[in-house]
Amino acid sequence: MAQEQAGRALRSVKWRADLVAGALAEWPEDPKKRTGEEWDAVRGAIPGGEYLPSSIIRSRTRQVAVFESKNARLPVDVFELEPAPRVPRMLLLAACDGQQATIERSATEPTKALLRLQLPTRPDPQKYADWTWAECPITLPPTVPANAVTHLPTVRITGRKVRADVAYTHAVPKTSRTGHTVALGVDWGLNTLFSAGAARMHEDGRITALGAGAQFRAAGVLAKQYRLRHIFECLHAKTDH
User: Fold this and answer.
1) CA 196 to CA 121: how far, in whole Å?
2) Three-state SS across 180-209?
3) What is the pLDDT of residues 27-60, one digit of tens each?
4) CB 147 within 8 A of CB 132
């Protein structure tokens, strides 16, 4: 579990290191506004930069610009730009085998599952006798099909509770390429994040809408994001003062 968590942290820092190195190698004359040639250059300097969203490059550019304004120079690499990463308190049980953890669904209650894992009985376990099996009952949401196969979860602490992120696998019917009579159309925009509507094709060629459609509006979430960003900027200004 520790090796898997370390591997994830190393893969993450490798991605950030390549991103920062590419941004520093093609640093623009005006960090607030790149030209078209500068955009092409920075994307070419970052591995896979042609598929990278522009917002990620802009946020890294702002981060480097803040460092430059405080230190009157550019950072050497990501290790000078960012502090040491913090390791979250969680157990990656997916990296274990049956000798360490098992999970089994209840035969009578589809929403119940039993997670069994070995936990140490002392802070510094030295031998097999220092470990013991613990049983953790898990309540699955109703969206998990009754015939789904559950996999070992990631166990993490949230407040005073222990949460389990459970992945599952279930069989689905094979999709045919032709013969469909119902279609779902989804579009996105600036004012409305997602708009969706279903339509049915009849035997005579007519197409009719099913219901009035649906929309997802993120105005409330965006308002909270702007408010938290404003609070963060105020607190950051206070600490600088």
Assistant:
1) 53
2) CCEEEEEECCCCCCEEEEEEEECCCCCEEE
3) 999 988 999 999 999 999 999 999 888 889 999 9
4) no
Nearest-angstrom CA–CA distance, 28 and 41: 10
CA gap 79, 118 in Å, rounded? 36
Sorting pLDDT into bands at 50, 70 and 90, what band is 20?
very high
User: Burial, 2: exposed, middle or buried (Cβ in 10 Å; 0-12, 13-18, 19+)?
Assistant: exposed
For 74-105, how does the pLDDT look when each residue is reduced to its tens digit (9 = 90+)? 999 999 999 888 888 889 999 999 899 999 99
Rounded (10°) CA dihedral 225, 226, 228, 234: 160
Beta bridge partners of 104: 114
Residue environment code for 41-51, b if the CB has 16+ CB neighbours within 10 A, otherwise e: bbbebbeebee
pTM check: above 0.85: no
Residue 22 pLDDT greater than 90, yes or no:
yes
